[in-house]
Amino acid sequence: MRDAWRLAVGTLTVLPVPPPRVVGPRTAGWAMALAPAMGLLTGVPVLVVLLVLHGRSSPLLASVLAVAILALLTRGLHLDGLADTADGLGSGRPAEQALALMRRGDVGPFGVVTVVLVLLLQVAALASEIGSGRGPAAVLVALVVSRLALPLLCSRGVPAARPDGLGSVVAGSVSRPQLAVAAAVAVLAVACAGWLAGDGPAGVVRLGLAAVPALLVAAGLAGHCVRRLGGVTGDVLGAGVEVAFGTCLVVLALT
What's the structural domain count of the chain? Predict the structure, then answer.
């Protein structure tokens, strides 16, 4: 389990940790199952910033700072995956060429436009929640739900698009018990967020229901990539996190 923690923290956060000694399917599966907990970990600094800025700045400024801090805490890894996935899918090339394009270090027009639009949606939706006084609960739930997408997309039966890279390590590694553990952490976090927000059972239900479309969008993206590219990659997993995070915030802003 220690190696799983090291892999999860080292991959999903900017925190320095020793590398795992052994990375096998079991370690990879538990690392992905711990992803919702990593969402809670990265959410702590964001919550502190939102609480400090409450009543001292505009919701838009607080939202921009929150999203920027999240990018720093994750090294921009998920955003990079989003950009590369958009470039690969948007290229219209065969799977092999699209995967080669995704491995390049530069970002093409599809990637730039996609990242800009997704960030704008995230900032606008979070600003709306902050303005209504529900920002901390919304960002906490969106972080946990978006990280729950990782064990979902790495469940047994989901193939890797290529034999190397992060995707090949974690694809298909999450068993049903591990997925159940990840889901339990997410459910507990949503319940606590609703309770802390003081909205009562109705607030908890509202937060929980926002998880459904977020996970469906991430699963839909992964399913398209499996059909289009032959499987998932680390970039696809990062893209899944970002679209789930944005979808969750947008749903909350509209409800």
Answer: 1
Cα pseudo-dihedral 186, 129, 248, 242, rounded to 10:
-100
Residue 239 lies in a domain: yes
User: Residue 158 phi/psi, 5° resolution?
Assistant: -90, 115
* pLDDT, tens digit (0-9, with 9 covering 90-100), for 161-209: 988 877 788 998 999 999 999 999 999 999 988 887 777 788 888 999 9
Q: Which two tokens stand for residue 49?
A: 């910033």
Residue 42 domain flag: yes
Distance CA 208, CA 58 (A): 27
Asked if 77 and 238 touch (Cβ cutoff 8 Å), the reply is yes
Backbone angles phi, psi at 66, to 5 degrees: -65, -45
Provide the residue range defining the domain that includes 73: 29-254
Q: Which residues of the chain have pLDDT under 70?
A: none
CA distance 232 to 221: 10
Q: What phi, psi does 187 have (nearest 5°)?
A: -65, -45
> Nearest-CA neighbor of 65 among 84, 85, 48, 90?
48
The residues with which 232 forms a beta bridge, in sequence order, are 160
